[in-house]
Amino acid sequence: MAADGVVYFSKMFQAVPHLAQVARALPGTFVSSRTSTLRAFQRLYPDLEVARYSKRFGFLVRGNRLLKDAGAIVTGSPYGSFLKPYAAKKGTVFHGTYMMLSKDALLRNSHFDLLCVIGPRMKGMLERFPEAERLNIVDTGFLPFCEYPERSAQQRTVVLQRLGLDPERQTVLYTSSRRGFGSWQRAAEQLVNTAAPHFNLILRPHPSQSLTSRRADRDSFKRVRALIQARGNAFLDLSECALSEVLSVSDLVVSDANSPSEEALFYDIPQLMIETPECSRDVIRQIGEREAMHPDDLSQLLTLYDCGPNLYIGDQTPDFSTVLDRALTDQTAYAAQRERYFSWVFGSRDRMANERVARAIQTHLL
């Protein structure tokens, strides 16, 4: 039996940083059915307990028994049909920052006995729906911030040297959105090719590509590695590092205006937003309208694109030779908007969310 009867469950890697922080404050066992997720969890959090779930072998497997006997099951995604057979009370901490939260998304999570939300944006979006009145919603804060290190010259040197990068250079982190939606195929190779040589580069594809890669992904990584070898002072991060670690040493974040770009605001890191035909301000607006987001929430969401300059990449080959320096030079002009956006999404800037979630679990689930 897991300590205190708590089992943390997720199939997807994206929920791992959230659940690991709660497990540090309220011990339990992390259970997953995916080998890639278990391996990533053990690599990043070797001090925490893990067990495998198997649909095929049933209660012969420890993870299955833990779920059956748990006093509480905490996860980061709905998993409605999967969780239904288990008698334990259930809670969710939501993985990611949930940039969009429609009525359908709320209903997919309505089976939980506890919903821990990450801040004012999520709480406000949920409370717009009458169905939320019967749900137990607690604003506990954003869990990954618990592991965000304090930035210092010493910490920066240790991390960058371990990645084979130069601590004396400014560091650009590129983090794309998921396969088929993000800018990786359009931007990654050209970033390595054209970024000014005085920058360190960290390229971090979405976990859907790095942990569950397809042939096209692997071919892309091979090409990027070859370019990195020729350039130097660049690192391809296939989710080998915690996002918090690479953000903590970054001077500029280049992104598709996604969850990592929101998280980067914890450190008030300057931003450069990439727009493409697949993912742009207009595309996000259309998705939000299709998901029936409240107009005020959608309008506020789109102001993420105002937290830094934008670079549109269409059919042309992108050139990063000057835009990175310009984004850093202009960072002060966007500082007020970065702070406004952070406050709307996350509220307070602290590292105590795991303790608040642990108290909520003990109060409402155990």
Description:
Helix content is 40%, strand content 15%. The protein is an alpha/beta fold and 366 residues long. α1 packs across α17 and α8 (184-194) runs parallel beside α10 (215-231). The protein is globular. The relative contact order is 0.14.
Which keywords apply here?
alpha/beta; 15% strand; 13 strands; single chain; seven-stranded parallel beta sheet; 366 residues; globular; six-stranded parallel beta sheet
Our count of helices gives: 17
Number of strands: 13
Listing every helix as H and every strand as E from the N terminus to the C terminus, the arrangement reads EHEHEHEHEHEHEHEHEHHEHEHEHHEHHH
Which percent bin holds the helix content? 40-55%
